[in-house]
From TrEMBL:
Stored PROSITE patterns: FE2OG_OXY
Lineage of producing organism: Bacteria, Pseudomonadati, Pseudomonadota, Alphaproteobacteria, Caulobacterales
Protein name per UniProt: 2OG-Fe(II) oxygenase
The entry's keywords: Dioxygenase, Iron, Metal-binding, Oxidoreductase, Vitamin C
Pfam families given in the database record: 2OG-FeII_Oxy_4
Length: 241
């Protein structure tokens, strides 16, 4: 069983609140003690990912070995559908491991994945949720969900606002755990303004929390073919009951 996680000492959500209120988003580095962030990075490297994607307007979760065994012509058709969809609509492709689904089903495995399970416990702890309520000034924050994600070269997530009827999403969050990342490798969390410009973008900085109000138009820019690492993170939403 992993040691319980706590936020880094010295973080003052009341002091950070004006910065969050200005744009409805915040990049917060040093969110966890470094030793814990390093353990989470190692666990993300070992996670049993599947391929998460959309093609021809439908969402799919495909086992990586199934994808590898796919006939070349079928794989080419799938890749063509992904690229075509990315030209005009909501489209994504990346690797995922649905942490919340497993935790809520009581399917804890411990071992190498215990640090990821500890992240789920942290973001659903009263201490973390109280931190978010103070940061945002929003008393409705009741629980959080999460998935581990891995973006490799070519992976992306096109523009969307996270507002899905019935999901009761209040805030989106991204916890980044790639030890080193260059902005020119892509994989940026980019926010779009009403004129179609990128108003701000966050590099996936190691051990940083990105949090933003829902709805808000954003995307993850495509990871470059020459990227020197995998973009590893835990993403999810803070919700009301």
């Amino acid at each position: 069983m992993a040691r319980a996680l706590q936020l880094s000492r010295g973080l003052d959500p009341a002091r950070l609140r004006p910065a969050f209120e200005r744009f409805g988003r915040l990049h917060l580095p040093g969110i966890l003690p470094v030793r814990d962030a390093q353990a989470i990075h190692a666990a993300l490297l070992a996670a049993p990912y599947h391929r998460s994607l959309t093609a021809s307007g439908k969402s799919y979760d495909i086992a990586l070995d199934t994808l590898a065994a796919m006939p070349p012509e079928r794989r080419a058709e799938l890749e063509a559908a992904i690229l075509e969809g990315g030209k005009t609509g909501f489209q994504y492709q990346f690797d995922a491991w649905r942490l919340s689904d497993l935790m809520e089903a009581g399917q804890r495995t411990g071992g190498a994945l215990a640090p990821l399970e500890a992240v789920y416990d942290l973001i659903n702890s009263e201490g973390f949720l109280a931190f978010i309520r103070t940061l945002t000034g929003d008393p409705r924050c009741a629980y959080a969900d999460a998935q581990a994600t891995r973006y490799r070269p070519g992976d992306f997530l096109t523009a969307h606002d996270d507002d899905v009827a019935g999901k009761k999403r209040l805030y989106a969050m991204v916890l980044n755990f790639t030890p080193a990342w260059r902005p020119d490798w892509g994989g940026l969390l980019a926010f779009h303004d009403a004129d179609g410009h990128v108003s701000e973008a966050y590099t996936p900085t190691f051990n940083a929390l990105n949090i933003f109000r829902v709805p808000q138009q954003h995307a993850v820019t495509q990871v470059a073919s020459f990227a020197g690492a995998e973009r590893l993170s835990i993403t999810g939403w803070i919700r009301e009951r």
